[in-house]
Amino acid sequence: MSAKPSKQLETFENPNPDRDYTIHIEIPEFTCLCPKTGQPDFAVLKLDYVPDQQCVELKSLKLYIWSYRDEGAFHEAVTNRILEDLVAATNPRFMRLTSRFNVRGGLYTNVVVEHIKDGWQASPSITLTHDRYHHGI
Q1: Which residue numbers are catalytic?
Q2: Helical H segments across the chain, by residue range
């Protein structure tokens, strides 16, 4: 096997740094270990971010996520740690990480953490409705 887990996140230059746009990445196979029992915990991670000057390179993100497979971590701690590492690597305008852990003992855990760069404000949302669009209003 040529690739190994790694905590090294690589980046590349944002091809459109003058525009706010959202990158959405879904990571359906995140695993870590329960720090109490050592049993595996499974989660779907959803990453949304508005890049500034750097974007995260996807292969390095895959290897980074893989690096948690044999580590014990509470859901809240690992979600915050991943966000902190991604923010340190990319310095985004905005980043949100949502972790949706599979059921364990009848409980689901969802953790949502966010980072907003000082001084950044989101562009106003534009909502297009079906009626408005088709009736020329």
Answers
A1: 34, 41
A2: 58-66, 75-90, 130-135
- The ranges assigned to domains in the chain are 11-135
Q: What is the pTM of this model?
A: 0.89
Residue 84 neighbours by CB distance under 10 Å: 13
Q: Please report the sign of the dihedral spanned by the C-alpha atoms of residue 26, residue 44, residue 110, residue 9.
A: negative
Sign of the alpha-carbon torsion through 111, 115, 121, 124? negative
Angle at 62 between CA 57 and CA 67, to 5 degrees: 125
Beta bridge partner(s), residue 104: 107
Q: Compute how many other C-beta atoms are within 10 angstroms of the C-beta atom of residue 127.
A: 5
The torsion angles phi and psi of 38, rounded to 5 degrees, stand at 80, 0
**Partners of 109 in the beta sheet?**
101
51, 94 contact by CB (below 8 A): no
11-135, CATH topology level: GTP Cyclohydrolase I, domain 2 (3.30.1130)
Per residue in 90-134, pLDDT tens? 999 999 999 999 998 889 999 999 999 999 999 888 888 765 555
Pull the structure tokens for residue 28: 């359906």
